[in-house]
Each structure stands twice: as C-alpha cells, then as structure tokens.
Amino acid sequence: MNLAEHYTQIRKYSEKICAPLATEDYVVQPIADVSPPKWHLGHTTWFFETFVLKPNVTGYQEFDENYNYVFNSYYETVGNRVIRTDRGNLSRPSVADIYKYRAYVDEAMVKFLAQPIDGELKELITLGFNHEQQHQELLITDIKYILGNNPLFPAYDDHWKEDSSIRNENDFVTIEEGVYEIGYQGDDFHFDNELNRHKVYLNEFSISTALVNNAEYLEFINAGGYQNFNYWHAEGWDWVKTNSISAPMYWHLIDGGWFNYTFAGLKVLDKNLALSHISYYEAYAFASWKGMRLPTEFEWEIAAEHFNWGQRWEWTESAYLPYPGFSKAPGAIGEYNGKFMVNQKVLRGASIATPENHSRVTYRNFFHPNLRWQFTGIRLVK
Amino acid sequence: MNLAEHYTQIRKYSEKICAPLATEDYVVQPIADVSPPKWHLGHTTWFFETFVLKPNVTGYQEFDENYNYVFNSYYETVGNRVIRTDRGNLSRPSVADIYKYRAYVDEAMVKFLAQPIDGELKELITLGFNHEQQHQELLITDIKYILGNNPLFPAYDDHWKEDSSIRNENDFVTIEEGVYEIGYQGDDFHFDNELNRHKVYLNEFSISTALVNNAEYLEFINAGGYQNFNYWHAEGWDWVKTNSISAPMYWHLIDGGWFNYTFAGLKVLDKNLALSHISYYEAYAFASWKGMRLPTEFEWEIAAEHFNWGQRWEWTESAYLPYPGFSKAPGAIGEYNGKFMVNQKVLRGASIATPENHSRVTYRNFFHPNLRWQFTGIRLVK
Amino acid sequence: MNLAEHYTQIRKYSEKICAPLATEDYVVQPIADVSPPKWHLGHTTWFFETFVLKPNVTGYQEFDENYNYVFNSYYETVGNRVIRTDRGNLSRPSVADIYKYRAYVDEAMVKFLAQPIDGELKELITLGFNHEQQHQELLITDIKYILGNNPLFPAYDDHWKEDSSIRNENDFVTIEEGVYEIGYQGDDFHFDNELNRHKVYLNEFSISTALVNNAEYLEFINAGGYQNFNYWHAEGWDWVKTNSISAPMYWHLIDGGWFNYTFAGLKVLDKNLALSHISYYEAYAFASWKGMRLPTEFEWEIAAEHFNWGQRWEWTESAYLPYPGFSKAPGAIGEYNGKFMVNQKVLRGASIATPENHSRVTYRNFFHPNLRWQFTGIRLVK
Amino acid sequence: MNLAEHYTQIRKYSEKICAPLATEDYVVQPIADVSPPKWHLGHTTWFFETFVLKPNVTGYQEFDENYNYVFNSYYETVGNRVIRTDRGNLSRPSVADIYKYRAYVDEAMVKFLAQPIDGELKELITLGFNHEQQHQELLITDIKYILGNNPLFPAYDDHWKEDSSIRNENDFVTIEEGVYEIGYQGDDFHFDNELNRHKVYLNEFSISTALVNNAEYLEFINAGGYQNFNYWHAEGWDWVKTNSISAPMYWHLIDGGWFNYTFAGLKVLDKNLALSHISYYEAYAFASWKGMRLPTEFEWEIAAEHFNWGQRWEWTESAYLPYPGFSKAPGAIGEYNGKFMVNQKVLRGASIATPENHSRVTYRNFFHPNLRWQFTGIRLVK
C-alpha cells in the first residue's frame, strides 16, 4: 500500500466511525475529557493542513484561516486556540462544513502524496496517520460517553456485541529474575516515548494470563470494596467519596439487577466479559483486596508474549516517565508526548476501540489515574 | 381569533424564530443561563402536554415518558429533571424528534381546543401562551449568545438591521409628588406578580424620555468609568475585576475601532443606537457617573405614558419583591413567579426580542444584576 | 459626657468584650464573614488614626506604616489591603501589639479631643463612635461563631444567661392604611442610609407584638419544613440542599434532644426563648408555612411603637435600597453604606449584641439573605 | 542513650523549635499544606498516647477524649477527625493546654519506657520518634511559611544565617552502567517504603557534585524561563499561568533588586546560596533549559557517596512508587506510607530543616510536584 492509499484508508475509517451518528451527536462535550466528534474530525484534518500542506505545498490555499484557532488542541507553538472546555460550546463550523474541510484537505494531500516522499517528511506524515488513529480510538470512547450518559440511552449499533468467549484460562505465568531489554527496536513507526531501548532488572513475578472479568469485580463490590478505605490510595478514597463512586462507569443497579450500557444500548451485565471502564484507583483497590498487585509496564512488556492482549487497555503500576536517553523533537512535533510525563499512569496493550495495527508490545498509553471513559481493565500480578 | 388559532399562531412563531438555524445551533449551551434552542422547543411543548393534555384528555398517550425528565425546567412539583447546566450535554432527543414531538402535541392541542373551554382551564392555557412567548424571547437572546460568542461570528440574518432613527428627544418629563396606583387592572391576561394593584407614594422626579445610546456610553468608557470604583456597588466592582469587564457584551475593540456583534454579524458600532447588553451594575455605574440614577419600577410605571418604550428592557433600581396581597397559586403553576422574589432586579418595558402583545405597562421582568445577554438598556432619572 | 469621655467609654467597651478571650481566640477566621477579634480591635483603631489623627494632628507620628495595609477593610480610597479572607492567616501584629496600638491612638485621640471640636469633624468622630459600636456587635457575634464552632464548645462566660421571660403576648396589632413618614428626623447621629425622610403609602396590615420563639420554630421543623420546597424561595431551597441545613445555626440534635450552643456553652434548648440565628430564607419559609409573611421595613418602622423590640435583629421583606434623595458623602466616608445597596435584605430592631444607644427605630441594618451568625429573628405579619 | 532518654531528647527538640514563637504564630494555617504549629505539637503527642499508652498502659487515663477528634491527621482507622483545611479555624485547645497535654503524656511515656521494651513495641515507639522528627521538619517549614507570608515579614531568629560557603565544586561525576542494589539494608530504623532492597539496572550517567545556586537560577529567570512553555510540562505551564509564578517562593523583586525572606527576615538575595523553595515543575524546567535533566532516585542513591548532600531536599525524576515486594503493615501504622504512592514525586537527601540523624541515603521523601514550601533544590544530571 503506497502512502496515498494508506492515507485514504485511515481517513475513511474516521468517517466510518461517525457514520451512525445524528448531527447532534457530533456537537456535545459532556465532560472536559470528551471532545465533540466534529472536533476530532476537524482537528485531525488541521494536523495535516498545518504540518504537511502549509509548509510543503507552494501556493496552498488554507481552507479557512479561523480553523487554526478552532482546531488546534494543545500545541502552544502554533498559536492561540479555543480552550479545551469550550469545544462543546461551538455550534460552528457545522458538521457539513467539517466534512467539506476534510474533502478539501484530502484532495490536496492525495495529490501531494503522489510524488516521492522520504525522510523526515515521511516520518511526519506517518506520525499524522498514528495521530489520526489515536483520535479514532477517542472518537469511539467519546461517542460511548455521549450516548451512554444520555438519559435516553440511545444505541450506536443495535447489533453490536462484544465476544466474551475469547478468554484465556486464568493461569499465572512466572517470569524469572534478571536483566531484560525494554523499548522499541526496529525500523517501523513508533513514538518517541518508546525510546531508548534500555535494560531493566526485574525480580521474579507471576502474571495472570487472563484479564479480570465482571464476575470477579462483582465479588469485590459485594464484599464492600467501595466502603473499605484500606484497599485504596488516600487520593483514591477521596475520589470515591467526592464522586460517590460505587461501581464501574456505565454500570447501573436497577431493581436489584446489574445493567451495563453498551454500544447496543442498556443490557443485562455480561459477567463473563472482561471488566472495563475502571479508574487506576479502582484497579489498585481491586488488586489490594485480592492480595495481589498490578504489573509494572516493564513486567508487562516482558511477559506479554505469554498471553493474548488487546481487548482492554491495562492499567500498570508504572508512572509515565521518560526512558533513559529520551529526548523530544524540536518544534510542535516535540510537544507530542514529553510534556505529559508527570502525574499520569501508563497503560499497556490495546482495546477493542484501538485501530488495527496501531498498538504494539512496546506501546505506552497514558492517562490520569481517575479517568474511566477508556476501555480500561485489570491484569493481576502476584 | 379563537383559542386554537391563537395557539397555532404562537406555536408557529417559535419555529419561525429557529428557521435560520443549523441543526448544530440547536444543541449547545455555552453558559448556564443560555439554554439550547431545542430545549426551549421541547420545554414549551412539555408544558402543554403536562399541564393541559395529560390531566384533561382522557386516554391521552404521552409522546415519550422520558421527556418529562428531559424537559422539566424548575418545577419541583413535577418530578426529577436534568440539571440546568447539563442541557447542553444532551445530543438526544434530536432536533427532528423534537419537531415530531411538537407536531404530535400540537395536533392533540388543536383537537382539544376545538371544544368550548373556560374558567381556570382557559387561564392555564393562556398562561401556556405567555410562557411560550417568554421562551420566544429567550430563544432570540440565547441564539444571539450562541452565534455571537462563536469565533466565526456567524450571522443569523444577513439583512437584519435595527432602526436607530426611532428615538425620542432626550428630554426629561417631571412627575409630581403624590399617591399613585400601581399594578395590573383589567380582565386580560397578566401574571400573578402584577397584583395586587395598590397605592404608592412618589416624590417628584424627572425622567428621560429617551434611552441612553451607544455614544453616551462610550463617553463613560472613555472617561475611565470601568477603572473608577467610586461609580460602582462593591459587588459590581468585584464583578468588573473578576470578569475583566471593560465594555458591554458583544462590543469588540479591533485596531482601535469599536465593533458590535449583531444578528447580521460583526459590524461597526452604531453610535446612535440605544445601548444594549449591559448589567444592572453597569447601568448603576453609568447613572452615578452622570450624577443621576435609575428609576424605581413604580416611577417607571407612572411615567411610561410620557415616552415610547419597547426597544430595550430597562433596568430599574427596584428589587423584585411581592406586591401587597400577593399570593401564589397552588401546585406547579404557583412555582411560576413567587419563588424568584429574592436577589433579583426588576426590568420594565420590552425589547426588540419580546413578542408582540406580550408586554404591557405593568409587566415585571426580573434578572440577576450581573446578567447581560438580554437586550437591556438604561433610562435616567434626576 | 464630653467627646473625650464618650470616646474613652466606647473604646473601653470593645476591650471589655474581649476580656474573657484566650490569645488564640483573637486570631482565627473560621469563615470569611467572621473576622478575627484582633482585627476588629485594630481596624476600629485604624479608623481613628486614618480619618481623624493623620489629617488633623500636625506632626502626628503613625504607629506603624504597615498597619494601613493590615487593617483597612474595604475602603478602596485608602489604598491596598489584606484581602478579607486572609485576615485569619495573619499571626502578626500580635494581640499585645494591637493593644499597644490602641493605647497609642487613644492617648493621641484623648489629647486631640480636649480642644473644642465642631462641624464636620465632630460628625466624623461621631461616625467613628458608631463605627466602633458596629464592630462591637460583630465582635460578639464573631466570638460566638469562633467558640461555638469549636469541637470543644468552650464557654465565653459560664454565668451568661439570656432572659426568656421578657416576652410580649403573641397579639397582633393592626395599622391602618394611609400615607406615613419614614426615615430619620432630628439632629442626633444617624447614618446616611436613614435619609431622606419621605412619605410611603401603606396598606392595612396586622403585625405580631412578639417574636417567634424556639417552640414555634420546632413545630416548623417537626412538620417537615426543611423537606418541603413549597415554603422556600428557589435559591433558599438550593441553599438548604447544598449546605444540608435542617435547623438554626448552633442547634444540635443529640440523642433525640435539641441542644443549643450559648455563650455559657452547649445547653438544652430553651423553648421559650426568642428564635435566633436563622437566615432570611428560613424566616421566609417559616412565615410561608404559617400562611403569613414578614413585614416590610416601612411597616416595621411605623408599627414599632406598639411593641418592644431589641432582643433580635428582625429580617424584613425589604431589599436594602436607597431612600428618595439619598446621596453618599464624598471620599472614603462615602463608601460607608451606599455601595452595599444591592442583593441584601434590611433588618430592623437591635439584638442583645447591639451596644446600648446604638440602634433606633429608623436604623437600617443589612445582610445577605443566607447569613445566620447574627442574632436574627422573626416577627410575623398577616 | 536508652529509650526514655531518646524519647525526651526528641520531644524537647519540638518545643525548642517553637520557643521563638508568639502565641498567635501557633494558631494560623495560611494554606492547607501548612498546619498550625500547635497542631503539630498536639498531633505528635496524640500519636504516642493513641498507639503506645492507650493499648499498653493498664488504667491509663486519656488526657481529653475530644483530642482524638482534634489531633488525628489522616488515620482512617482511628475514627473521625477535623478536616485538614479546618485546623487553622480552631482557637482551642489553647497553646497552654497543648503544652500541658505534652507534659502529661511525656510523664506517662517516660514512666512506661523505664521497663524493658522490645520487639514490635520498640519498633512502634521508634516509628513514633521518626514521626515526631518528620513533624519537626514540618514545624520549621510551616513556621517559615506563616512568618514569611505575613506582610510584616517578622523574623524567627534575628541572628539566623545559612552558610553559603559550604559548596562543592560544580563537577560532574560519572557512574558506570550496570546492575546496582537499591533500598535499605541493616538493622536500624527505616521506613517500610525503603524496602525491599532490590536490583536495578542503570545506564551510564554523569551527576553534578553541587546543587544549583541562586545565581544560576537567576540566569534562567533573566533568560525568560518563566515565559517559554517549551521548558515546561503541560501541567507545569498551567501552574505557572494560573498562579502567576515568576520566581521561587520567598523571592521578592523590590525596586529592581532581588530580596529573599529568610528566618532572619527579608534580606538581599544571597546569590551563592543553594537555590531553595522551588516546585518540581520549576526544577524540571530549569534542567530542560540547561539541556540536562534531574536524576532518578536510583541514580541519586548510587551516586550519593560522591558528593555531600543535606542542605536541600532534591527533586528527582522518579514517581513515588512501591519497591518490589513492598507490603504495608496491618492497622493504623500501615497507613503511614503506602497509601500516598500515586501522583507524588520522590525527593532525596535532607534539608537544613531535617533533624540530625533522621535522614539517610536510602530515605525517600515525597511531595506533590507543585509544592514549594519545603527547602527543595536541584541537582543536575547529563
């Protein structure tokens, strides 16, 4: 697949994700972390226009000069921007305008990609592909939040069903003590935060080959896990109290029975399914209650060849920090990862929302420990 | 015009107001005071369904039982409701669904109104008409806020123009000291807060026959009015400082020139036009700077026959309090006015957004002193 | 009593109020409205130093130039100041330093007052006396808050007891409809907000000769008054919910019995005592539940000769607004009253904390409707 | 030194720290992180009474049963407590009462410690010693905050002077790549968070033998370091903007010259002195500007034999996480360290406020990345 085909394939997929939406669903931002779908569609387009077309295509005519202000996310280098919490206050540009913007930029990009492209520019374009894939995952999780927190519980896809039969035995595999190598190695795309490849020393540990499922988590709930501070970090306990948390996101106790909002609407909770939509605080508390712990990201990376992964992003015990020798690129691209390396937790694996071929064993995802709207789950270590 | 025709006329006007909107414009709630237009369209419909159709039409089939939760505003009597600040987080019901809801309820209403209706029920329906008219005014001011705070400054109507030539001479008319009667008298519709008609004693005062215009207010700005605490209430001064206020809402200083967002988009400020979109705090400060004051609502009501009014809601010095003998109706309808009679200021007159025949000389509008998104202006007294 | 003697008498009384305090009690500010007692002692002294000594005594040597910053309250005219919520964060100046400051200023003042003083200067000094008396009342109510919200419930005076036998019959006296005169008349001290004396028209009303007592208010509580939104203003109801209010301030339900923090410590609730420490919201809700209402400040002023008043500040239905012809003095003194005339309610009468000879029938006290730490009570009108 | 002597020595030192204070200085809590000195004195006493005397001394008579509520800090196991932000609102117990409390508990403790004590109980008492030493450091830093944020800038000790001549050459020492051992080893006191001793793999690195001094940090300021987002984490940049940060805590720019609040009062900034009172965000930004980085806590621990440390707590790049095999003790003592292991940064070394013999090379201090009131400094790695 050549670069232009690759580009087109990725761009089309973003639009496919949004196909089932009503126009209104593109607009709202119920919490700061959840951006309006139309914003994602515009922002990913702005990325290609700003970093590829404007600097490289002579005479390129910007689609609309105001869009830089509207669709910039956090790039301080590229000028002022709508503050993040205001994205849901903008009714314009309309959804139709944004699709026109996409078509306009796509046409220019496909034309541009017809010529031979190499070196740094190719790397930058490939970063744009991966950037759009990250927003594809956010589109899916943000749409779930928008529909799943609506009192009418509208479905995204009536026929949607997650396969709960794909499941490993709940065995533990033991990894021996020793020096291991961590981080990306190879010539394909990878993020700067996966480098440098470096050595770490691991003690012996045993890691589960299966993710925690809903049945196991219900035991924690029924055992009073949300009422006993002993299992929690101090700030996790504050979070439980302040927000009156008593179950994973999207779980509803109705007339004594547990229901779960899924993309097909509100359904009876499937107990065999891998647990999802829990915060790091809950992951930690559950593990404490079990007398176990979460893996570090290093343990996970070394052990990952022994189990299937990919249904859920897996909270690790590791904080998101630079690897030895990490250095960020100059300019706007350098704002990609490094500046978030404080007060976040690493997640490893991939989720059902992650685009195919986007993740890999060295991939480092990261979120604040209180967030639950991603498909986040638990793997135990003892 | 019979009741059914009156109903239809009023209902159509709400939809006419929204006709120029894009679907996206119906959805957003940029500040708590500004509700999404689709919410207004649903809420006014819910009013007729809840208070007229459900109690009075045998076998009436509710359109959707969830709508009570979605479209109730502040009626504690009628059950739970979406909290006010969450209205802009709901992408559903869609705009199309709400228009279906309107058509469904309209059909049932028109059928119901074909029979002879009298007494309390007629009063209730007439209240529903006036309720919808109040939301028509809010539709207009909320649409202005939604478009006028968008960085693209989209127009609502490219040909819209406010006539700045209709203007009285800036004369003062003097009203003699004495006992006057205040409040509604007659048999037509009026709100409970306009009763009882009662006597007040007024001292002699002179009131301007014209509203303050933009040129006069610019003098206040240029004289440093926003920098001198002496003109302001203590809490008005805090409001100026906290919110960095330096001009009326919708005014923009661009390259040294003043612009104003209007329904036709961003335009050079028309200095002859009556000032609008100022808070009570600003009205008070401007009057102090002039060495004058605002009228009380009683002075206004007595003097109103001496001038044209209706372009702007006029801030008065009066707090919104019950008239002697005021008593609120029982049940949900009683929640209409009385429970807001604390910490608000009375406005008199009407604005360009007020539906025809909705206001009258005894009409009492009320808002918190910091609010500016209504078409609010100033009339001076000395 | 000459001016110097009057000065000394008033100044000594402030210190007498503080005599039972531990040093620590002078320092804390548990809520923004409650200032540290040492701040009151310093601020009232600063008033005389700033407005009397510095402009009028040649060669007067300021005690400490930093004190202007520390003890200014809200006078924008006189320069920067410690923000109000930071008063409790200042351990210095120490209590001993502030008593030295008082002695220093008192010596200079007594010396200064030995000469004949007249006209505006005498008025200003008399204003200083009344200013200090207002802070004496605040000293008492702030001390009650500081001790009464301490988990150890320390007593201020073990022998303190409020006389609950002084109580009128609960009769209603009827005032006839007509034109009445309101506002201060005479040559003695009065605040600017009591002027101009002016005519008002009152409808006939009947007003209770007694204040509501604790027994009556308990009936309201037991009747579910705090659980029924119908009795409350919308913002009163929000206040109840947000702050989980279920009884007057200082009331505690312990093992099924009601207790009340008094200056003698925590005591069994005296049911015969006049109700105290309630907000305007609660006063309004109680009156609504009774099917009655609160008096306006004008009704109160006209009816006051028919009952004893002075145990409690009485919430009125009136908002705090300027009288006809009100104008504020120029300079810092003009910041005294006028700039607070928005969003506050008028209280009439006086409380057990009010210094003797400080209040009068035309006196207008004012507070925000949610505040309860003053000795506030209820008189009903029907 | 036997246990009773050791106890007495440590307890006396807390009181020695407070000796220069005025009573008022013991009371205030200007920010949530800074507790009133009297609270520290009471809380450390409560620790011995609650965990040693009450469970182990038959017939022990509690000093005051209300003190558990007042002096518990964060131990959920031991019951309710005054919320942390309310400590500065309590004027009682008085300072004198707290010294009586200390004397009462000290007498009982010394008597109790006269008998032979071993095993877990000895460990617990030693934990109490270290606990009190930690609060001694907080007493010093909290007193500095209380006095240093007072507009009068009172001195704690007029003769106090920090020696700026004790300073290494600014050389870098290089540590070779390899497997190293980290964590406490031995039989003396240590915290649970220093265990298990475990192996880590370190890459080669060069670490400065000197701390950054004020002159070097001034260069960063003068180079616009606080105005360039490139050097900062995204949340560090938000912190700078939100709090208008432009220099280390206690630095004041007066008439063009830099001053520094020290325990001797406000003084001209000593440029040779080791930089202090900066947040992790500032430490990171400074290192970025230098083209260097902060050490990890593992690098620091291995390299520490090559330099003198102890003047400043040194921010590391490491997040505060459990070591392999870490497990917390059961009961209240188990709440000591583990529950804070999220969203905090590790500091290594010791400061001029740290009691002698309290720190060690494996000691792990931890704070949130925005805090500056500790004596925190920077050591660079390249």
Q: Could you give the topology of this structure?
A:
4 copies of one chain form a homotetramer.
Chain A (H helix, E strand, L loop, with lengths): L2 H16 L18 H20 L10 H5 L23 H19 L5 H30 L23 E4 L2 E5 L15 E5 L2 E4 L5 H9 L11 H10 L7 E4 L2 E6 L2 E4 L11 H11 L6 H7 L9 E7 L25 E5 L15 E3 L8 E2 L5
Parallel strand pairs in A: 8-11
Antiparallel strand pairs in A: 1-4, 2-3, 5-6, 6-7, 8-9, 9-10
Give the key terms:
homotetramer; 382 residues; alpha+beta; paralog of FGE (formylglycine-generating enzyme); 2 domains; four-stranded mixed sheet; three-stranded antiparallel sheet; 9 helices; globular
Descriptive overview:
- The structure is a homotetramer of 382-residue chains.
- Chain A has 382 residues and is α+β, with helices and mostly antiparallel strands.
- Chain A has 2 domains: 3-148; 172-377, Alpha-Beta Complex (paralog of FGE (formylglycine-generating enzyme)).
- In chain A, 33% of the residues lie in helices and 13% in strands.
- The first copy, chain A, contains 9 helices and 11 strands.
- Chain A has helices at 3-18, 37-56, 67-71, 95-113, 119-148, 214-222, 234-243, 280-290, 297-303, and strands spanning 172-175, 178-182, 198-202, 205-208, 251-254, 257-262, 265-268, 313-319, 345-349, 365-367, 376-377.
- In chain A, the strands form 4 sheets. In chain A, strands 10-9-8-11 form a 4-stranded mixed beta sheet.
